[in-house]
Amino acid sequence: MLESLKRALCRFFGLRDSASTTANRPAASAAAPPPSAIVGATTMNKITSIADVRRHFRNNKEPIYFISATNFNLLGIGDWVGNFRHINYINCFDGQQRNVFVPKEKFPRDFESIEDINNYLLEHKEVIDFIQSRSDGEHAGTAAFLMFDEHTEEVCKQLGLKGLSLSPARTITTSTPRRSRLRPRSRS
User: Fold this and answer.
1) Rounded alpha-carbon distances, angstroms, from residue 136 to 51, 53, 128, 159, 175
2) Chain-centre distance for alpha carbon 166
3) Dihedrals φ, ψ of 86, to 5°?
4) Where are the domains of the chain?
5) How far apart are CA 15 and CA 27, in angstroms?
6) Contacts of 162 (CB under 8 A, 6+ apart)
7) How do residues 139-176 score in pLDDT, each as one tens digit?
8) What are residue 84's phi and psi, to 5 degrees?
9) pTM of the predicted model, to two decimals?
């Protein structure tokens, strides 16, 4: 059961499952250190407890961002996943919540959807600078969204972010009637 939980979390966060990839690797060379000498999640071949799941994700080195209006949807996940940051429009905790980045300068605008807020944040200079400051060059990390659209995917690609998604936005918009209920109704 814990092994399947680990695989599901790896898929969700776009992380490589070290246990499943070890079988696909060529034999280690004589110069490589033994697995017991490698620190972190790579030493686990089998998950046997919740502590192993926590250790695996806590040792994550790749930046992961949850980009949304607020940080409530994944509040506290930074305690479980290393290098996790929220990028939000609203500072719900007046700067007291760790792992939250909110741009200081805001440009007034009317948002019509959650996707509009996410796109605004992704195109904000302070957010771009924050993501680039944590980037390892070509790959800037992974982004997770509550809602996204094709424009969000394009901006992520330009920033070097991998988007967390099971399907492209165009697939979701054509198959999910819920999206139409999330848009504000016009007042007639």
Assistant:
1) 29, 25, 14, 12, 36
2) 13
3) -95, 140
4) 2-58, 64-182
5) 22
6) 14, 139, 141, 142, 143, 156
7) 899 999 988 899 999 999 999 998 765 455 555 555 55
8) -95, 135
9) 0.66
Q: What is the DSSP string of 10-48?
A: HHHHT---HHHHHTTSPPPPTTSPPGGGS-SGGG-SS--
The pair of structure tokens assigned to 170 is: 């165009």
Residue 29 is which amino acid? S
For 187, the token pair is 């007042």
CA distance 147 to 128: 19
Structure tokens at 173: 């918009």
- Tokens 């994550």 appear where? 60
Q: What is the DSSP string of 47-97?
A: --SHHHHHHHHHT--S-EEEEES-S-TTTTGGGTSTTEEEEESS-TTTT-S
Q: Which helix (H) or strand (E) holds 142?
A: strand 141-145
